[in-house]
Amino acid sequence: xxxxxxxxxxxxxxxxxxxxxxxxxxxxxxxxxxxxxxxxxxxxxxxxxxxxxxxxxxxxxxxxxxxxxxxxxxxxxxxxxxxxxxxxxxxxxxxxxxxxxxxxxxxxxxxxxxxxxxxxxxxxxxxxxxxxxxxxxxxxxxxxxxxxxxxxxxxxxxxxxxxxxxxxxxxxxxxxxxxxxxxxxxxxxxxxxxxxxxxxxxxxxxxxxxxx
Length: 212
Hints:
Elements: H1 2-5, H2 8-23, E1 26-28, H3 30-48, H4 52-55, H5 61-71, E2 85-87, E3 94-98, H6 99-118, H7 122-141, E4 147-151, H8 152-172, H9 185-211
Antiparallel strand pairs: 1-2, 3-4
Helix pairs in contact: 2-3, 2-5, 3-5, 6-7, 6-8, 6-9, 7-8, 8-9
């Protein structure tokens, strides 16, 4: 539906859907919204027997947002949410943090992201990679006097996600090498748990210091 996607009504529907999603507290990548909108228009066009450009007007932003929100929550089988969905940061303040501490958080998110990727949790891996990239960009772009500015929400998200991955390693058997053959990975995983717990605690400590 390349032609319909280039039309003003289609682009307007995508923008309106994103706005509705924000009212529900989630932010979704534009390309993901476009994909859902395109699919719903295609289905509607076939159902009513009209061109897709005409069917655009039969799809509401609320209906598209509802589909995305349902996909963003775990279903009865425990399926993970799509990686394009992330919580909206309510607290938009930034905080100057030591670059050494931020470097540890880059390592933490990268390590946790590796575990998530190797153990089949693509959404968590993508989210953690986004955080690592965001912190790294701050280090490169805003580095001054041994400190760099990052959003406070990053610290909350790092602590939550890194701790969650540590939980999976500890309780669910996630491993740096989930091949099933023992060759020392259990010792590596045990060390990774300790490191991730330490870095999650560091993120929380940085967050508490910023609030003081």
